């Protein structure tokens, strides 16, 4: 189980990296064709929508978001599916943390590698 946690945590963390978020081909590889999300805001996104949203966000912010993530846990749901849960916050330019969020991601593996099928973010209080 620790290998699964390590693998999925690495893949999920790539999605927090500004360079990956702006790389459409990398996002296409990480996100399943049927990917969908309910974001922290409550907005719904499909794969094309989230790729477009991340590209626009990257062009419109003065500084790249520094995502702080911890409390990763994984639950295998079968040989080719797993639920990853964790917390995030965004480090502000002054060093404070904001936008605390509980996150869950459903990852599937069709034999070619893990892809994110579903993601949800829920606003949370500050634990740090």
TrEMBL record:
InterPro entries: DUF4440 (IPR027843), NTF2-like_dom_sf (IPR032710). It comes from the Bacteria. SUPFAM superfamilies: NTF2-like. Residues 8-116 form the DUF4440 domain. It holds the Pfam family DUF4440. This is Nuclear transport factor 2 family protein. The lineage of its organism: Bacteria, Pseudomonadati, Pseudomonadota, Betaproteobacteria, Burkholderiales.
């Amino acid at each position: 189980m620790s290998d699964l946690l390590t693998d999925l945590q690495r893949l999920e963390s790539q999605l927090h990296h500004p360079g990956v978020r702006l790389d459409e081909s990398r996002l296409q590889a990480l996100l399943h064709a049927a990917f969908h999300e309910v974001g922290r805001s409550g907005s719904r996104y499909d794969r094309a929508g989230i790729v477009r949203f991340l590209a626009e966000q990257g062009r419109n912010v003065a500084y790249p978001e520094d995502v702080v993530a911890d409390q990763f846990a994984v639950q295998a749901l079968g040989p080719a599916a797993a639920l990853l849960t964790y917390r995030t916050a965004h480090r502000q330019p002054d060093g404070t943390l904001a936008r605390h969020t509980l996150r869950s991601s459903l990852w599937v593996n069709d034999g070619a590698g893990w892809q994110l099928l579903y993601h949800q973010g829920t606003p949370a209080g500050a634990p740090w």
